[in-house]
Amino acid sequence: MSKLIEDFQSYRSEMNEKILANDNKVMKRIFSVDTLAYQEGALNVKTKEMLGLVSSMVLRCDDCIKYHLEKCFEQGTTTDEIVEVFSIANLVGGTIVIPHTRRAVEYWEALQEQVKSK
């Protein structure tokens, strides 16, 4: 596994555990609503993850971008689809999204390499 992916997943998991260990009802509910929002519904999971990716890029949250890239990858999103997602995010978010797109491309490539190296 790529160090980039491993570091992100490890940090996210560790910090989520710490956040949820505080047993704060509001935080637990926010995490729960987030999980529920991305379940199959009128829109399929793949579409919801691509929407999450666009939103995360426009909001310029690199952690969220990585998370949604992983979920898109798990859903079988193609590189062509990801590039279209990037194009919408840059159109809506403007040129300030370009640095996040660079890091997103790097992470997407790491996800793809992970499969090739197995």
Write the layout of secondary structure elements.
Layout: H1 3-21, H2 25-37, H3 45-59, H4 62-74, H5 79-93, H6 98-116
How would you describe this protein?
This protein is an all-alpha fold and 118 residues long. The chain has a single domain (3-116), classed as AhpD-like, CATH 1.20.1290. 80% of the residues lie in helices and 0% in strands. The protein contains six helices and no strands. It has helices at residues 3-21, 25-37, 45-59, 62-74, 79-93, 98-116. Helix 3 runs antiparallel to helix 4 (62-74). The radius of gyration is 15 Å and the shape is globular. The mean pLDDT is 97.
| Beta-strand segment tally | 0
The name of the CATH topology is: AhpD-like
* Category from helices, strands and their pairing: mainly alpha
Overall CATH class: Mainly Alpha
Describe the structure concisely.
The chain is mainly α and 118 residues long. 80% of the residues lie in helices and 0% in strands.
Descriptive terms for the model:
mainly alpha, AhpD-like, single chain
